[in-house]
C-alpha cells in the first residue's frame, strides 16, 4: 500500500480524489507524504513530496511540482484551512485534466511552467 492509499483510513474523501487523479490523470508519482496519523494533533506532522528532493534532476527543469504543491494543500487542511486546501487541489485537478503537466505525466511543460499553470488555475478560482 502506498502513502496515498494509507490515507483512506484517515480520510476517505482524500483517497477518492487521489485514486481519481491516479486513474485519470497519471498522478501516480506526484502525491504528497503524510503517512502518519496525527489527527489527535498531539504530535507534529510532516508534509513533503514522496520522492524527496530529487537531487539527481536538480536544475534540469524536469521535476514534477505537483507533489510539493499537494503537500502544501495537505498541510493547510491539517492546519484547518480547508477552503485554501480545496482551492489548491482544484487547481491541481484542473491542470491535470487540461494536460498542463510535466513529461513524467505525458505533458510537455517544464517545472516552472507546470507550477505556473497551477498558480494560474488557482488565481482563476478567485
From TrEMBL:
Keywords: Manganese, Metal-binding, NAD, Oxidoreductase. The keyword NAD applies. InterPro entries: ICDH/IPMDH, IsoPropMal-DH-like_dom. Its cofactor is Mn(2+); Mg(2+). Residues 1-118 form the Isopropylmalate dehydrogenase-like domain. Gene3D superfamilies: Isopropylmalate Dehydrogenase. GO terms for molecular function: metal ion binding; oxidoreductase activity. The keyword Cell inner membrane does not apply. Belongs to the isocitrate and isopropylmalate dehydrogenases family. PANTHER family: D-MALATE DEHYDROGENASE [DECARBOXYLATING]. This is Isopropylmalate dehydrogenase-like domain-containing protein. It comes from Microdochium trichocladiopsis.
Amino acid at each position: 500500500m502506498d502513502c496515498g492509499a494509507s490515507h483512506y483510513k484517515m480520510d476517505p474523501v482524500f483517497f477518492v480524489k487521489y485514486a481519481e487523479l491516479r486513474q485519470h490523470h497519471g498522478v501516480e508519482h506526484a502525491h504528497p507524504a503524510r503517512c502518519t496519523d496525527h489527527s489527535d494533533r498531539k504530535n507534529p506532522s510532516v508534509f513533503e513530496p514522496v520522492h524527496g528532493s530529487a537531487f539527481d534532476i536538480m536544475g534540469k527543469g524536469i521535476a514534477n511540482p505537483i507533489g510539493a504543491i499537494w503537500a502544501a494543500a495537505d498541510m493547510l487542511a491539517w492546519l484547518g484551512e480547508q477552503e485554501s486546501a480545496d482551492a489548491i487541489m482544484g487547481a491541481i485537478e484542473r491542470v491535470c485534466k487540461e494536460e498542463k503537466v510535466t513529461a513524467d505525466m505525458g505533458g510537455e511543460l517544464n517545472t516552472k511552467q507546470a507550477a505556473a499553470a497551477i498558480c494560474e488555475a488557482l488565481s482563476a478560482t478567485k
